[in-house]
Specification:
Helix content: 25-40%
Number of domains: 1
Radius of gyration: 15 Å
Number of strands: 7
Shape: globular
CATH architecture: 3-Layer(aba) Sandwich
CATH superfamily: Gcn5-related N-acetyltransferase (GNAT)
Number of helices: 5
Order of helices and strands: EHHHEEEHEHEE
Strand content: 25-35%
Distance between the termini: 33 Å
CATH topology: Aminopeptidase
Strand order of the largest sheet: 1-2-3-4-5-7-6
């Protein structure tokens, strides 16, 4: 397999990053919260104008991972009690190939003065939990049902950098 290149996204990358995120969501979340609910959430959380707005904010980190000049991963993070990773998605059939790890390393390098990187993952997303634990994140707490997505609690993980 060719090497992964991680870079800041351009406006030309927004639609490909959004489409990849949607494929990842359907593969990951439809089994947990149902396909209809997943599609409803995608309509609002992954709208093109929202992705474009997130890319335009200089305080945010909006990355794409490329392999053979094709977008195969997307990560979005921003300052919130450290650095909060809102999205980290890899093409479903390429998971386990180092793409997610490369994006995490890029986020960590970009935010090195920040002491904490954290995220939430839906309870039941065992593959993501295992990935984050392998990359040095530790479980902090579980949210209540009302704080999760579609009445599924979220698990909060973090990594202290300094």
């Amino acid at each position: 397999m060719s090497e992964v290149q991680v870079r800041t996204a351009s406006s030309d990358d927004v639609e490909a990053a959004r489409a990849l995120t949607n494929r990842s969501w359907l593969a990951t979340y439809a089994p947990l919260i149902g396909e209809e609910t997943t599609r409803d959430i995608i309509k609002t959380r992954h709208a093109s104008p929202l992705f474009a707005e997130q890319l335009a904010n200089d305080d945010n980190t909006f990355l794409v991972a490329l392999r053979a000049n094709q977008i195969v991963g997307h990560c979005y993070a921003y300052p919130k009690h450290g650095t909060y990773i809102e999205r980290l998605h890899v093409e479903p059939d390429l998971k386990g190939g180092g793409i997610g790890r490369a994006m995490l390393e890029h986020v960590e390098a970009q935010h090195e003065p920040v002491s904490r990187i954290w995220f939430e993952v839906l309870k039941g997303n065992d593959n993501a939990v295992a990935f984050y634990e392998r990359t040095g994140f530790t479980f902090e707490q579980q949210t209540g049902l009302e704080d999760g997505l579609a009445n599924v609690p979220a698990l909060i993980f973090s990594k202290i950098l300094n």
